[in-house]
């Protein structure tokens, strides 16, 4: 029995935890930037948040939920699940790139008003998309 062998259920839980963690981190980051935006120019805070919420809900419904379901279907099809297989290796590569890009954009946004509005909307939209689509994980009833 390989050292990294695990159950399908464990992989689903790890995928859900990763997905939800990303959503909560982006929600906190977007919220902090929203507070900064509100101090600089209160008029732009609510439109930026509103665009983020609407875009995030659309992404959750039409894009991210499908990604989650495909990942859960892939996990269910694994014959000998390994602990690292809760996402494909490419996902982890793109996750590192997205974190680096997000951190860079946030640093730039502190000194650039237009970028700040954009990053607030982007972070909130991604947070809503991740959190909204995470419902797919609770509805999944695959074999253990």
Account of the protein in words:
- The radius of gyration is 17 Å and the shape is elongated.
- With 144 residues, the protein is mainly α.
- The protein has helices at residues 8-40, 42-77, 89-109, 113-133, 135-139.
- The mean pLDDT is 93.
- The longest helix has 36 residues, at 42-77.
- The protein contains 5 helices and no strands.
Helices, by number, come to 5
Coarse shape = elongated
Q: Specify the helix fraction band.
A: over 70%
Structural class: mainly alpha
E-strand count: 0
If you average the pLDDT, what whole number results? 93
Could you tell me the strand content as a percent range? under 5%
| N-to-C order of helices and strands | HHHHH
Instruction: Report the end-to-end length measured between terminal Cα atoms.
Output: 17 Å
CA-atom Rg in angstroms: 17 Å
Index terms:
144 residues, mainly alpha, 5 helices, 0% strand
Short description:
With 144 residues, this protein is mainly alpha-helical. The protein is built from 5 helices and no strands.
Task: Write the topology of this structure.
Blueprint: H1 8-40, H2 42-77, H3 89-109, H4 113-133, H5 135-139
Helix pairs in contact: 1-2, 1-4, 2-4, 3-4
């Amino acid at each position: 029995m390989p050292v990294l062998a695990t159950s399908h259920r464990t992989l689903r839980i790890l995928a859900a935890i990763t997905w939800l963690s990303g959503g909560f981190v982006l929600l906190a980051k977007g919220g902090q930037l929203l507070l900064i935006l509100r101090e600089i120019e209160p008029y732009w805070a609510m439109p930026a948040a509103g665009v983020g919420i609407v875009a995030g809900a659309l992404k959750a419904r039409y894009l991210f939920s499908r990604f989650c379901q495909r990942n859960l279907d892939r996990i269910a099809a694994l014959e000998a699940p390994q602990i690292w297989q809760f996402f494909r290796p490419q996902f982890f590569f793109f996750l590192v790139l997205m974190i680096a890009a997000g951190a860079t954009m946030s640093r730039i946004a502190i000194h650039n008003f237009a970028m700040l509005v954009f990053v607030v909307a982007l972070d909130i939209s991604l947070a809503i998309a991740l959190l909204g689509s995470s419902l797919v994980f609770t509805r999944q009833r695959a074999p253990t």
